[in-house]
Amino acid sequence: MAAFDLFKLSFLLNLLSASNLNLWAGNKAGPVGVFRPTCNRIECPSYDVIHTANGFEIRRYNSSMWMSTKPIDDVSFVSATRTGFRQ
User: Fold this and answer.
1) How many whole angstroms separate alpha carbon 50 and alpha carbon 36?
2) Where are the domains of the chain?
3) 21-32 burial by CB neighbour count: b if 16+ within 10 A, else e?
4) What is the C-alpha separation between 9 and 82, in angstroms, rounded?
5) What is the distance between the alpha carbons of residues 58 and 48, in angstroms, rounded to a whole number?
6) 3-state secondary structure of 22
């Protein structure tokens, strides 16, 4: 039992000391104004950086475009979702 407790403690300390968690003051956040890897796809809004400060930035996004459809009358949530997605 003591060996298992030692393993749990070791595992916890390993998780807390991981460099990718940014728990320590020496770790810097990623580059500001750079899109994440998932932003090579459809939903990546373009923006202008207005001000950059300690770990954050103020952005101005371009205008958005909204769309709507007529209401879907269906008892089945799955069927209504499928119909709405195809519109």
Assistant:
1) 19
2) 35-62
3) eeeeeeeeeeee
4) 48
5) 9
6) coil
In degrees rounded to 5, what are phi and psi of residue 29?
-70, 170
Grouping H, G, I as helix, E, B as strand and the rest as coil, residue 71 is coil
Q: How many CB atoms lie within 10 A of CB 5?
A: 9
What's the rounded Cα separation, in Å, for the pair 10 and 27? 22
Query: Rounded distance, CA 14 to CA 75, Å?
Result: 50
User: In whole angstroms, how far apart are CA 71 and each of 56, 75, 81?
Assistant: 40, 13, 11
- Which tens digit of pLDDT belongs to each residue from 41-87? 667 778 899 999 998 999 998 888 888 888 888 889 999 888 888 87
Decide: 51 and 58 in contact? Cβ < 8 Å. yes
